[in-house]
Amino acid sequence: MPHRGCVMTALALDESPPLHAPLRFFATAPIWGAAAGVLTSLRAERVTASRWTPEAFAVVHVLALGFMLQVMAGALLQLLPVAVGSAVPRVRLLARVSHAGLNAGTLLLVAAFLGAGPGWFAAAGAVLLATLAAYVGAVGLCLARARAIGPTLPALRLAVLALGVTVALGVTLALGLGLGWPVPIVELVHLHAAWGVLGFGLCLVLGVAYLVVPMFQLTPAYPVPVARALPLTVFAGLGLWSVGVPLGVEPVAFAGAAVLAAATVAFVAQTLLLLASSKRRIRDTTAWYWRLGLCCLLLAAASASWLHVGCPPQLRAPLEYATGVFVLAGAFPALICGMLYKIVPFLVWLHLSRRGPGAPLMHQVIGEPGPRVQLVTHAAAVIALAAGAASPLLAAFGGALFAASKVLLGLNLVVAISVYRSDHRPAGPAAPARC
Amino acid sequence: MSGSLSEVLGAHHQACDEAWAAAEERASEGRWDEAGLLLSAFTGAMARHLSTEETVLFPAFEAATRIRGGPTLVMRFEHDQLRQLFGELEAALAAHDAARFAGAGETMMVLLQQHNAKEEHMLYPACEQVLGADTALSSRVKAGLEGGLE
Question: What is the CATH number of the domain that holds B64?
Fold first, then answer.
């Protein structure tokens, strides 16, 4: 018989954090999302001209740090006890510190890109390094302790490992720019972007999708060999990319890009197949957020592949811009919104139900029309932003729509928070003691 | 029905999911009589599932580990939450209130699915780890689940 302690350390089934821990991240993200849209609108010519303009870098980091990482960091704190049965240590403190550090670091970095001066890069690098090292350390420890079976755990472990690599590369760049270190900027940017978007972003989506697509849409489970192979394939592609780019070995870098594109397409195809076989026949807006996000991932894989195979030089800049739109404005925000509209109403119900019977049900926390209106606005924003590759005016319009979409997200979340706050029943001893 | 504890209980989760999806669809179409029959089939199967876990599986796990205030306590608490939501669904069905039925159904389904995920990925494997191949226990679990959806 195994040691009793081994079993118990693997099972932290009710170590869910207090509501404010994930919610502070979720509530802040729409502000950054709206800021990205406004910035794109105001500086559309510069944002669409090249991925290497300071304005483009600023928008990319507002989205990647302020919106994407913000929500993902909060969601992981909430998800890990359910997904892998292991709670994040000192979660209240970690939530407060990492939320403050992530927002301060993002603000400093965006200011640096928009011309505040080299010192701001160094300050941003230092703040983000301290914050994200603590976050990756705590979440990494939680994942190292976890003993859950299934493909989610290995995918999440690789995602957090990739986040660590992304932070190391990004901080090297920030400190290099801030302190005048002679760093190979172009090569580091290529690696930083790939590890962040595919190593962290895509692997995290893989691990979460393995859990929530069957859960929320009542689909069959992902085939285990496919689910186990996909994150490893992403890492194999990143390995080739990370050798080929800095050493200037074009065939190796090309092979890495091909492997990454193939893994992305395989994930999208598998997930769309599963969604098509969902047992649920009712209309569910969050499933459409998933479909929109997956289609954007597919478009991103296609445009990134074209960049590597026969793209005429004059189309390179617009195609790079379009790829960025599909990934950072299209795919991840859609998947994130789809998740938020399940997680937030459920968490509000869950915490209020512990005060006894009578808690508002999910549809009373966030009703159906709000997410549906935001979905249409988001889809229109992505189309206009992508068309911005041909005309900055369309990009400006798309930026305004994107900002509107994130304002709508924020309003929906504010409604959910107000429902929680308006419940004045005393907290009862309904929940069991922690494991 | 054969297989390990995880397989038997996991398969029953899926059978319950299918019954729920059918009930949810009929209710969304306003076919309340059919929805009522399907909801009864679902809640009946769930009642047997929850009861089998509470009276057969969890006591065996608690006896083997000598821990009663741990994961099984959390699971029992979530079972009670599910039973309350089944009551909400039955009330919404009786009132033919589509919005209330959909809201209670969505809440119940997310709670149920995250509950099932914890059981299938963590608790059932832990039970198999500490209880080993206890055939008498497996027989009692199967007997507890039988008679409904199978």
Answer: 1.20.120.520
CATH of domain A4-421: 1.20.210.10
Number of domains within chain B: 1
Tokens of A379: 């889809």
Give per-residue pLDDT as tens, B8-49.
Answer: 999 999 999 999 999 999 999 999 999 999 999 999 999 999
Place of tokens 């039955």: B90
Q: Which domain holds residue B118?
A: 5-145
Residue B150 lies in a domain: no
Residue A236 distance to chain B (closest CA, Å): 27
CB contact B3 to A (< 8 Å)? no
3-state secondary structure of A424: coil
Among A221, A338, A218, smallest CA distance to A278 is for A218
Are A83 and B117 in contact (CB < 8 Å)? yes
Dist. CA A6–CA A29, nearest whole Å: 38
Say how many CB pairs under 8 Å bridge A and B. Answer: 119
Is the model's pTM score more than 0.90? yes
- Is A13's pLDDT higher than 90? no
Q: Which residue of B has its CA nearest to A6?
A: B126
Q: Which chain A residues touch B132 with a CB distance below 8 Å? A: 1
